[in-house]
Amino acid sequence: MNDPIYNKLTQITAEENVLKDEPLKEHTYTRLGGKADYYVTPSTYQEVQEIVLLANQEDVEFTLLGNGSNLIVRDGGIRGIVMNLQKLATIKADGDSVIAESGARIIDASRFALNERLTGLEFACGIPGSVGGALYMNAGAYGGEIKDVLRSTLVCTKDGELITLSADELDLDYRTSNIPDNGYIVLEATFDLKQGEYDDIKAVMDDLTEKRESKQPLEYPSCGSVFKRPPGYFAGKLIQDSNLQGVQIGGAQVSKKHAGFIVNIEDATATEYISLIKHVQATVKDKFGVTLEREVRIIGEDVEV
Q1: For this structure, is 61 an active site residue?
Q2: What is the pLDDT of the chain when averaged over all its residues?
Q3: What is the model's pLDDT at position 305?
Q4: Among 226, 231, 256, 300, which residue's Cβ finds the most Cβ atoms within 10 Å?
Q5: What's 35's domain CATH number?
Q6: Using N-to-C axis directions, what is the helix angle for 106-115 and 198-215, rounded to 10°?
């Protein structure tokens, strides 16, 4: 193939790990998004480093996708190289610690901890994101969050260097970290947990799973909770009290089951989904004077008209 970037990518990683013009709606929980010029799924840390260095050397745009659970990709897609670390998904134990590669699901890290009779990750048993994504946004649920249990992380810098950072060096706060600002690519995370009883840990996880399944619209594609919790309020309650549940733009709808979710019920476009987010924000601001800040990330390009 007479494509210099494709050819160089396939010299770094196996040919099946490099796709051209790949529809990103195949890789996001919302089932939204245009195409990536190059969609790459490296299988080693060294390949990650080399792809980052290639992007720098060739001055090609570079985007880390994560597993697409808390993300909206616009309909025009993403230029340059899009990297997904799903093939880096090993989880192992080291004493009372769990070490998980960034492409592993945080749900699977939670289940692994259960099987090792380690307590501390129960809160993550229903969070759909990857380990890397969980660190990126200090993911949390049901009173727990990543910063409660994270000891350290191995990252690849935007210059292709591997460095280990302590949890304190990530500035973890409510749904934020300094990972995006510094351009870090999380490769693995070490969680410090405690010995516990299997039945006790499982009972907590079963209870949280039941709460999640009974309250959240898991039957439709969505990005999860769209908005951060405003100080002193609940986003879902504000949206519900604004009579927005069931409101629809195209195939995107404010969930009738949980107002904090926007679901793709009928082949929505990213444009429709984003328009509905803005409509919800404007309506809540007008009715209650509260600004809803997005928790979901929006990346990529709009379609040229």
Answers
A1: no
A2: 95
A3: 60
A4: 226
A5: 3.30.43.10
A6: 150
